[in-house]
Inverse folding.
C-alpha cells in the first residue's frame, strides 16, 4: 500500500454549503490559488450543475490552476456529469466526482430507488464521466450507514466501469473511529480489484469526530482524505485539513505517510478562507486558532523557553504563524505593499485594483500604526467586492451618549444615487442597521451579528460578520474598520449586496 496520503480539499464545494458561505468567482479563484500554494492534491472547485455561475467558477479555476487537480462534483445523472465534464475541460488535471446515496434510508426515502437501480445509475454515471476524463471518483453517499455487502457490490461495479478513486463518506457524521478503521478494512478486503483504486474518506463533524474518523480511515487503508480549511462545511462542518495534515506529520510514528502539503501555508489559507466566508476561527481551534501556540501559564512559558518540546508538539513557524507578524507601516511604499500581497497570494489582477487597495492601505496606516497580514487580507477582501456593490457607504455619523437614545446619520450610494437617512436605535449598531433598512427595505431577517478584533490592541480593526436570511437564501457579509460601528455598517451593506446578486443554485444533496 502506498505511503502517500492525497489531500482532497472541498472548501469550495462542501465548505460553500455552510449557511451564507457562498463565494464569488473571484473569491473562489483566490482561495484556489492559495490551496495550490498549500500543495493540495485535488481541489473540489464546486458543483457545476448548481448554476451557470458555479460552472463558470469551476472553469475559471481550471484555467489558472496547474499543479493541483481541479474537480467538479456531479450527481449520478447525465445532466450533472456533462456540466462537470465541460467545466473541468480547461484543467491541466481534471477530475469528475460523481455520487449517489447507498444507505437503505437514503435509497428508500430520498431517491425512491431500488438497490439495483442505484448500481445501474452509478455505473452509467462513471462510464459517462470517463468520456470526459480518466480521473473519475465515485462516492457512496451516507456510506457509513450503508450495508457493507451492498457497498462492495457497487464499488466492484464502478471500478469495472472505470472509477479510479472510491470515496466512503460519513455524510451525517455518525461514525466512531475504531469502527471506521474496521469498516474500511472490510470494504477493501471485500471489493474485487480494490488495489487498483485509491480509497478515500470524507467525514462530517456532527459528533465532533470528523478528524478522528478520517485518521481512523487512514489506518484502515484510505489514502485520500477529503477535508476543508478550518473544518468549514455542511452543518457542523467537514474534517479540518490543518488538523489531519499536522496529525499525520506530527505522529509519523503512527501514520508513516507523506503529503505534498507545505505546512507553512496553513495559517495564510485559514485566514483567507475565514475572511472571505465570514466564518471566524475560534481562538482555541487546533493549529490555526489564535491561542493554539500561546502559552499563558507561567509554568508552560518557562518550560517552552528552556526547551520548546516540553509543551509544544509542533512549532508555530511550521504552520505559518511566524509569517503572520507585523508586516507594514505608514512609511511602507507601494513596492513593499505589492510584494507582501504577492507573498500572501492576494495580489489583485489589475493595476487599477492594486492602486485602489494601496490608497485604502494608506488610509488605514494613518489610523493604525502597525499593519498586519490579517489587515491586508481584509483590505483586499473589501476591495475585490467593489465592482458588484449596489450599496456603498459614503459616511456615517453616530451619536451615543449615556441617558440618550443613540442615533445614526447615514449617507449611502445606492446604484449611483446619494441618499441620506437618520434613525434611532437601542444602541449605535441598532440605529445604524435601522437607518440602512429605512432605505433598503430588504425584508431580511438578521440571523447573526458578530465582531472580532482582527489583530490585538485597541487600535485593531474590528471585523464584523452579518448573516441575513430572505426566503430560502442566507448570505454573509463582512466589514472591517478601526471603528466597529463603521465595520458593522459595511458588513450589513455587503450582505445586502450579496443578496442583490440573486444567485439561485441547486444543492447537490437535496
Ligand atoms: O457528505 C457527503 O456525502 C458529500 C458527498 C457529496 C461526497 O459531500
Ligand atoms: Zn460532505
Amino acid at each position: 500500500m502506498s505511503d502517500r496520503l492525497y489531500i482532497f480539499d472541498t472548501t469550495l464545494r462542501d465548505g460553500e454549503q455552510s449557511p451564507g458561505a457562498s463565494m464569488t468567482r473571484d473569491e473562489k479563484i483566490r482561495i484556489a490559488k492559495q490551496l495550490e500554494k498549500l500543495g493540495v492534491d485535488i481541489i473540489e472547485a464546486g458543483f457545476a450543475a448548481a448554476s451557470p455561475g458555479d460552472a463558470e467558477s469551476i472553469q475559471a479555476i481550471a484555467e489558472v490552476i496547474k499543479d493541483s487537480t481541479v474537480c467538479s462534483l456531479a450527481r449520478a445523472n447525465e445532466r450533472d456529469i456533462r456540466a462537470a465534464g465541460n467545466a473541468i475541460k480547461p484543467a491541466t488535471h481534471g477530475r469528475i466526482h460523481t455520487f449517489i446515496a447507498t444507505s437503505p434510508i437514503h435509497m428508500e426515502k430520498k431517491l425512491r430507488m431500488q438497490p439495483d437501480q442505484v448500481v445501474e445509475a452509478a455505473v452509467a454515471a462513471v462510464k459517462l464521466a470517463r468520456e470526459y476524463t480518466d480521473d473519475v471518483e465515485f462516492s457512496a453517499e451516507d456510506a457509513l450507514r450503508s450495508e457493507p455487502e451492498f457497498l462492495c457490490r457497487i464499488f466492484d461495479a464502478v471500478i469495472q466501469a472505470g472509477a479510479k478513486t472510491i470515496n466512503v463518506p460519513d455524510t451525517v457524521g455518525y461514525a466512531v473511529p475504531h469502527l471506521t478503521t474496521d469498516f474500511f478494512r472490510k470494504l477493501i478486503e471485500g471489493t474485487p480489484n480494490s488495489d487498483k483504486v485509491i480509497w478515500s474518506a470524507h467525514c462530517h463533524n456532527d459528533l465532533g469526530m470528523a478528524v478522528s474518523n478520517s485518521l481512523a480511515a487512514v489506518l484502515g487503508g484510505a489514502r485520500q482524505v477529503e477535508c476543508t480549511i478550518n473544518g468549514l462545511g455542511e452543518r457542523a462542518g467537514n474534517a479540518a485539513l490543518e488538523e489531519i495534515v499536522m496529525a499525520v506529520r506530527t505522529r509519523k510514528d503512527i501514520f508513516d505517510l507523506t503529503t505534498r502539503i507545505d505546512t507553512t501555508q496553513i495559517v495564510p489559507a485559514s485566514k483567507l478562507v475565514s475572511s472571505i466566508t465570514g466564518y471566524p476561527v475560534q481562538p482555541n481551534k487546533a493549529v490555526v486558532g489564535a491561542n493554539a501556540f500561546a502559552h499563558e501559564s507561567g509554568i508552560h512559558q518557562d518550560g517552552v523557553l528552556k526547551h520548546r518540546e516540553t509543551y509544544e508538539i509542533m512549532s508555530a513557524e511550521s504552520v505559518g504563524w511566524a509569517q503572520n507578524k507585523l508586516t507594514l507601516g505608514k512609511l511602507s511604499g507601494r513596492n513593499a505593499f505589492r510584494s507582501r500581497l504577492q507573498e500572501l497570494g492576494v495580489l489583485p489582477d489589475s493595476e487599477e485594483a492594486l492602486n485602489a487597495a494601496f490608497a485604502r492601505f494608506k488610509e488605514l496606516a494613518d489610523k493604525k500604526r502597525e499593519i498586519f497580514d490579517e489587515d491586508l487580507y481584509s483590505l483586499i477582501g473589501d476591495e475585490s467586492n467593489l465592482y458588484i456593490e449596489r450599496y456603498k457607504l459614503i459616511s456615517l455619523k453616530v451619536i451615543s451618549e449615556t441617558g440618550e437614545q443613540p442615533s445614526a446619520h447615514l449617507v449611502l450610494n445606492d446604484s449611483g444615487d446619494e441618499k441620506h437617512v437618520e434613525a434611532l436605535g437601542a444602541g449605535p449598531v441598532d440605529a445604524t442597521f435601522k437607518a440602512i433598512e429605512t432605505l433598503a427595505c430588504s425584508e431580511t431577517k438578521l440571523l447573526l451579528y458578530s465582531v472580532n478584533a482582527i489583530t490585538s490592541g485597541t487600535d485593531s480593526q474590528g471585523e464584523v460578520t452579518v448573516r441575513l436570511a430572505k426566503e430560502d437564501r442566507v448570505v454573509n457579509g463582512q466589514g472591517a474598520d478601526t471603528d466597529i460601528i463603521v465595520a458593522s455598517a459595511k458588513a450589513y451593506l455587503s450582505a445586502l449586496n450579496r443578496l442583490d446578486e440573486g444567485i439561485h443554485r441547486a444543492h447537490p444533496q437535496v
